[in-house]
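Q&A log
Question type: sequence-to-structure
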Amino acid sequence: MIEFIGVKKEYNHDVVALNDVNLKIEKGEFAFLVGPSGSGKSTFLKLMIKEEEPTSGKILIDGKDIGKLKNKDIPFLRRKIGFVFQDFRLLYDRDVYENISFALRVIECSEREIQAKVKSALEMVGLSGKEKYYPNQLSGGEQQRVALARALVTKPPIIIADEPTGNLDPTTAGEIFKTLLEINSRGTTILVVTHAKDVVNSLAKRVITLDHGKVVTDEQKGGYKV
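Response status: OK
Response body:
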């Protein structure tokens, strides 16, 4: 589902963000991407959605070489990847329903489809009945659940969660990861970038560790060793 083949990303010919990265994340897998600040995690994510281009190497998403995509095809690539951010990135002048339905309107779903899919997404994240609430009326954990519902409402094959629990208390963070595991159990590939050492260690999922732009460990049932 996600494959990096000899990927290098260099800035200004002297700053190497990623160096000869080779890894493959299979369809339906749940993996953590960890590493210290400056290790290359953000660059890795930007390359996946073509916000950046690799200096060399090849990146395959869902079996397709994204380096060969034309500009007009990039939006279709990004629709395959649902993003969940640490700071939620919700529209605070719109209610929960409008925040989630926005992604569906972009791909021109019918109003009936939108209603059904928003309802299903809210049920999946445990927010049924919160459609008319505005983000500032919700707790931080609930706002993150809205962000998660927005990411999964179009049923992308991949969800990337970038520090999804960084601003949440441990109990709420645990609930968010429980939801991510449930989504993963339905076949969605999940990649989580996090510093949440306790969660990484407790879940015993695949852990890919970056340091100075290189994959230094890749363990199927690993722990946080940074």
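Response note: The domain at 28-53+78-219 is CATH 3.40.50.300 (Rossmann fold).
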